[in-house]
Amino acid sequence: MIGETLAHYGFEGLLGQGGSGVVYRGRDLRLERPVAIKVLADALRDDELAWARLLREARLASQLNHPHIAAIYDLGEEDGRAYIVMEYVEGLPLADIIPEGGLPLEQVKRYAEQISDALAFAHEHATLHGDLKGSNIIVTPEGNIKLLDFGLGRRIPRNGTLEVSSSNLPLAEVGATAGTLPYLAPEVLRGNPTSVQSDVWSLGVLLYQMATGEFPFRGVRPFELSVEIMMGTPANLWQLPEPLQSTLRRSLEKNPDARFPQVREFAIALQGKAPEPEPVADGLPALETADPSTATEAPIPPPFSPHRHKWWAASGAVALCVLLLGGIYARHIRALPRPAPPVPATSAASMPKSLATENPDARVWVNTDSGIYHCPGTRS
Length: 380
Fold this sequence. Notes:
The protein has helices spanning 48-62, 94-97, 105-124, 164-167, 186-189, 196-212, 222-231, 244-251, 263-270, 306-335, and strands at residues 5-6, 9-17, 21-28, 33-40, 72-78, 81-87, 92-93, 127-128, 137-139, 145-147, 154-155, 356-359, 364-367, 372-374. With 380 residues, the protein is an alpha+beta fold.
């Protein structure tokens, strides 16, 4: 298409291409201004779903007038080629400028604030993006970002239903899993439609990518990556500073209800101005929040000896039996009649000195032959 014209647009160079189409740098010959032209791929010319996506992208993005969202100028079809004309943004895709190890923290915060501002504006105008990723964001030479490609975007559901008729979205596409795998939320992988919370998840993945240069969930094969997204935890999250760490932790919760309900709250939390709520318990693995190298180990309990346990159990049983028998014996003794003690025939005075001992203070005589203790004046 380079060097050719389509309607009143000339094609000057190639900007990029994907499965759904090719994007060219072009020029509006009537208004004399640079434009970006997205042409539907030849293989999709007769695909009604592809045309519906292109039409939906034009309708959704054309309603969003925001400094960080690329504007839509035109939509048409000429010589069997469907196309969409957009604002031409000079710069590089964000995915191409993230170095190994991530961007500087101040740069991460600046980009994240601009991206979240654009995404929040779209949500407030009832539009989901559905495919937020580094290649759909252009960074200008001045350091500003532009959000592109609402091709997988949808109107935010009202009354629990998607606005299928208003966007000409075929029923066969409702609930279908579409997007870029490393950025997909767990519920979208399970077949649920995109939502505000799934856009928040993708924003969290993008924030993690900018801060570390890597994806929070990784896998060699798509299946392994999907399992990590649904069950794994972000690697090295504890190494990131606050409030970046807590913002990411909440953005990447497996349970959508535990994430930020709105993108504006994501932006506030990233500035460290919002208290973090209690996490929602859903039985899913908690995210890593502490440095494992500095964690304090729990004290180790003394070793358990089964023989010692048996000895204590036996001792306790014996003691219990003794107490029971002692109680029964005591009750039996108290129930018996007590005979009067025999009165000794001899007194202490008539006892031989060797057979009687007198305690003058206690007035007790002891008969060593019979073993009888006698206290005068008492019965015992």
